[in-house]
Design goal:
Layout lengths: L11 E7 L3 H14 L5 E8 L5 H8 L4 E5 L5 H11 L4 E5 L3 E3 L3 H11 L3 E9 L10 E2 L4 H8 L2 H4 L20 E3 L1 E2 L3 E5 H7 L11 H11 L3 E12 L9 H19 L4 H22 L1 H26 L12 H16 L10 H18 L10 H24 L14 E6 L3 H11 L6 E8 L8 E2 L2 E6 L3 H7 L4 E4 L6 H10 L6 E4 L6 E3 L4 E3 L15 H21 L1 H7 L3 H4 L1 H4 L1 H6 L3 E3 L18 E3 L1 H4 L7 H14 L2 H24 L1
Parallel strand pairs: 1-2, 1-4, 2-3, 6-11, 12-13, 12-16, 13-15, 16-17, 20-21
Antiparallel strand pairs: 4-10, 5-11, 6-10, 7-9, 8-11, 14-15, 18-19
């Protein structure tokens, strides 16, 4: 009679709680797969009623993962407790889904606890996606003093002070291991004995504070809590707790309040004072978190006030000459009316960089202001000043938006401009080439792939798929600085997680975004977003370039700019550059723009009939295809250029292309003269 199979011994149980972060979770599970090689382990994922297809993804791509599906989002603590009760490992690891672990992380942490029996729970070094150290990796308990220094900002002002830097222990080195009060809940490695004695997480904490509470109880039970610097993870902080800003801030500070009330006994007046401070800090944090939405309105209000001051100077020859009773009304009311009109026009939503909407709203606002002067005679100092201020505001308010769009600083989610993200792809093999090709096809996203970075041991010279190899991973810092790179995209399978961590960490001081492409080749995973790597091209019924109003506007723009250049620039160039070749093809062909045979911006002559049945505009002196003439352009890219321009054509886009053409022309001339 055969003996029953011996129960499988599990050394490490990894518990991950997921809520609507499918792509981050998939990336975390892939990194765990490498980190758990050679370790007797199990991975348990608790899904808190996600609606993004996470459950289906786990079942399809990670069939060995033990999946617990919850019908409702019952909170981080409750979900972890569900998994803790089912876990079998001698060691338990609570891990956030928006993390990336190194190949050695699990083994290093297990070895550390085996060598230090007095340590009950430990956390590792935690890095932000840009390579900087995440302060929450080691903390002190929020006593009234540490909470006060953090709330009022003293810990940020004096991070090296033992007196003020206690909460995040910023006065201690991150390159040493030592005992702390608490570690981050995004990575908590503990013994099963600890869990069996102390119990699970306190479910009174829905989202924040449960890690502090657990560490406090473990410490009170006689074990130490340690920070371990020998290994690290990347934490895309905030993705695993997607909530509205107000809810998130309120929940965090309420959790701190619950923790202090549960574990510390202080005089009532002190607790009341702390409660007031926490509420004040919550409100301040909420305001600061919304400043990014408010700053366009602040700039607009300042522009209106500056326009009023300028109009006063132009009209009266001085400033601040209004009678005392007029202040501050003459500066507050007009700016409020303009901002309110912009708000009602939807400018402060996702269209905050809309030039046409902002111009229209400003004109309407100043017409209204001009009408108001008829009813408030005591403030009707000069209608001419109102007209001047209106003209200046109608130029400046859309103008700064146009400059931001031209320089590639418009809000995420809108159409990126030609001056967008200077991107390099790590990987020169088939994977790197495939990623580069897909990125180059995303015309309207403003991604400018300028070259490739070779993996360790690969050739760092020559060109691959029409793109130059700019250097290797070892020398990537020099490449990022010299080429002013804004984005680094790592192709799948090119680097190990350890190499990836080293690359990010060594360049943490640079303003560069590092993004990963998982093995599925479907998305880019970055600091706070997941972007689709490939967009489905849908043929739209109507293109901008086919609309009669756009054709008229484009023709007026062509005639105006061409005539202005012929009158102001062409005569000087004709005299200073006697040969036709030195005058340049752009200026030589300006008369053809006036006659209507071609346009300032449009496709090349060869590409005009590239897509049968679709009007793509007249041949252009410059355009999207011409801007990329310095490198090989595939047929797919040409089609993307043509469709993108046809869909998005506008006077503003033509201005952007002309501006970019001028910059590229100057750059090429400097390079030619230098050689």
């Amino acid at each position: 009679m055969p003996h029953p199979a011996a129960p499988r011994i599990v050394d490490v149980s990894v518990i991950v709680v997921n809520y609507n972060v499918r792509e981050y979770l998939a990336n975390a599970l892939r990194s765990l797969r490498a980190s758990l090689q050679g370790v007797r382990s199990e991975v348990i994922v608790v899904d808190n009623a996600s609606a993004d297809g996470s459950v289906e993804m786990i079942r399809k791509q990670f069939p060995r993962v033990r999946l617990i599906v919850s019908d409702e989002n019952s909170g981080f603590a409750h979900a972890n407790n569900l998994a803790l009760r089912k876990a079998k490992g001698r060691y338990l690891l609570l891990l956030n889904p928006d993390t990336l672990v190194r190949e050695d992380t699990v083994r290093v942490m297990r070895s550390y606890l085996e060598k230090h029996p007095e340590v009950g729970l430990a956390g590792c070094k935690i890095l932000n996606p840009d390579g900087t150290f995440q302060l929450a990796a080691r903390r002190s308990f929020p006593t009234p003093w540490t909470a006060f220094t953090r709330i009022v900002g003293l810990s940020r002002l004096f991070p090296s002070s033992k007196l003020f830097g206690r909460y995040n222990l910023t006065y201690r080195s991150v390159e040493e291991s030592y005992e702390v009060d608490a570690v981050s809940g995004s990575f908590m490695f503990l013994r099963r004995d600890v869990y069996e004695k102390v119990g699970g997480l306190d479910e009174a904490f829905f989202m924040y504070g449960e890690d502090l509470d657990w560490c406090y109880r473990i410490q009170r039970a006689g074990w130490k809590i340690n920070y371990v610097h020998a290994t690290s993870i990347i934490h895309y902080k905030g993705e695993s707790t997607r909530r509205s800003n107000l809810d998130e801030i309120r929940t965090f500070y309420e959790a701190m309040q619950v923790f202090v009330g549960k574990h510390f006994k202080y005089p009532k007046w002190l607790l009341v004072g702390l409660k007031i401070s926490i509420r004040a800090a919550s409100a301040a944090a909420f305001v600061l978190s919304h400043f990014r939405r408010l700053w366009p309105a602040v700039i607009d209000a300042l522009v209106v006030d500056c326009a009023i001051i300028a109009s006063e100077y132009l009209r009266r020859g001085g400033v601040f000459l209004f009678p005392d009773r007029a202040y501050p009304t003459v500066y507050i009311i007009p700016s409020l009316i303009v901002v309110a009109t912009l708000l009602s026009a939807g400018v402060y939503t996702r269209r905050s960089m809309s030039v046409t909407r902002s111009w229209t709203a400003v004109v309407v606002a100043f017409i209204f202001l001009s009408a108001l002067t008829a009813f408030f005679k005591e403030y009707a100092f000069s209608r001419i000043m109102v007209v001047i201020a209106g003209i200046l505001s109608s130029i400046a308010i859309p103008g700064w938006r146009m400059m931001f769009r031209i320089m590639g600083r418009s809000r995420p989610g809108g159409r990126s401009t030609l001056f967008g993200r200077r991107t390099v792809v790590v990987g020169t093999g088939p994977e790197g080439q495939a990623v580069a090709e897909r990125l180059r096809a995303r015309i309207t996203d403003g991604i400018d792939v300028i070259g490739l970075i070779a993996a360790p041991g690969s050739s760092s010279s020559g060109t691959v798929a029409g793109l130059p190899v700019l250097g290797t991973v070892e020398s990537i810092g020099k490449v990022l600085r010299s080429h002013k790179v804004t984005d680094v995209v790592v192709a799948p399978g090119v680097l190990t997680n350890t190499q990836l961590f080293a690359m990010i960490g060594s360049n943490s001081g640079l303003p560069v975004s590092f993004q990963l492409v998982p093995g599925t080749m479907e998305v880019l995973i970055g600091k706070a977003s997941v972007e689709s790597l490939e967009r489905v091209a849908l043929v739209e019924v109507a293109y901008n370039i086919e609309l009669p109003s756009r054709r008229i506007a484009k023709r007026v723009f062509d005639v105006t700019v061409a005539a202005a250049l012929l009158i102001t620039v062409y005569p000087f160039v004709y005299l200073l550059a006697p040969t036709r070749k030195r005058r340049g093809s752009f200026l030589r062909n300006l008369p053809d723009v006036l006659s209507g045979r071609c346009s300032l911006v449009g496709p090349t002559a060869e590409a005009v009939g590239y897509i049968p049945g679709l009007f793509l505009g007249k041949p252009g002196l410059t355009g999207l295809i011409q801007l990329h003439a310095g490198r090989p352009v595939s047929r797919e890219e040409i089609e993307q250029f043509l469709l993108s321009y046809a869909r998005n054509q506008s006077v503003l886009l033509d201005l952007e292309i002309l501006f970019k053409s001028f910059i590229l022309h100057r750059r090429r001339r400097r390079i030619a003269s230098a050689t």
